[in-house]
Amino acid sequence: MKQALRPWRWLLLALFVCCLNSCHDDDDSNPGPVIYTGQQLFVSANQVSTLTKVQLQALATLAGYGAFVPQLKYDVTFYKFLYKTTYQGQLLQVSGMLAVPLNTPAPPALLSAQHGTMFRYADAPSNFPATFTGFELFASAGFVTVIPDYIGLGASQQVVQSFYDKSTSAATVVDMIKAAQYYLQQQQVALNPRLFLVGYSEGGYVTMAAQQEIETHPEHNLTLTAAAEGAGGYDLTGMLTGIATVPNYANPSFLGLFLNSYNITYAWNRPLGDFFQAPYAAKLPALLNGSKTREEINAELTTSPAALFTPTFYANLSNPSGEPVLKQQLTANSFLDWVPKSPTRLYHGTDDESVFFQTSETTFARFKAAGATNVEFFPIPGGMHQTSIAPMMANALPWLQSLDK
Q1: Pairing of strands 144-148, 110-114
Q2: I want to staple 377 with a disulfide (CB 3.0 to 4.6 A). Which of 208, 257, 269, 364 is the partner?
Q3: Is the Cβ–Cβ distance between 198 and 228 less than 8 Å?
Q4: 53 with 74: CB under 8 angstroms?
């Protein structure tokens, strides 16, 4: 959602500068992650601003979300939030944004919102109000809202993003929820028992990963009320092999981030020249150093997958026996053997050029075939990746509000 804001960045900074204010279960026989409590995970929460509902309504209008202005009813205090999550078997300090609506008539629900792919460190949600994802508006609609930065952004930017890794994606959300619940309890901020998840693009994938983690691990002591997931790459094998069948792919920056992330996260340590042709392999480290936008990275690459990838790697994407280690990891990080239990809505634009519509279509069909009874799918006719965000939220927000009773 942040893409629509860029032309207004400096205007927004000027507008809001005046508002700136300053025990676990450890089973050695279980290779899964250790479960920590919110108290163990919480680090700090520092107030950065309080914005009135009028200011948030103006922000929504400037960013292209004027249709949501009638839903924005509360002033909101924003906090830069630090907590810990598990990364490669160790606790890592990470960050996010906590937004608390003021003077709600009853205790609000907690909602975790997961943003789309970011390349620039400056765009991390914890840098609000210098950056804006759009999900901050959920707080003015009456939800205590947490927006995790993800590993590799914000306080953990020294680590390469763990992009489309299911376990760390889930952990950054679940651990922020638990840390926020602990902090709010210490501050005597009452919450009602409902918990919601919402996300788009990479955030749709991260949301589904968190939903699976919550629903399959009751030891987190979290009960999910509902989840809204848009345009996530839930079937990674199908997604990447699909890219090998199209002559052009609009966002080659995603492919660079994805393969670089897997190469480092899983300690393959392969030269990037195994995946990418010259001159792109040599360019990628500097392109992915956190200083450049998606558009700037795209401009330095090619939209032709056949020209971007080496001939061998490109051919192996379509070869069932090619790149077996990569494809094993793609399968492990996809959602192929789990079915949502909580009420769930999937959204996807039918003309999405970045995350193909078929990944949601086939995921929904698999859920239904496996017996899912609480999952709905909302195709967005003619929707592309950026243009489908607002239609999704126009459906998801009133649905979540209807369940918050």
Answers
A1: parallel
A2: 364
A3: yes
A4: yes
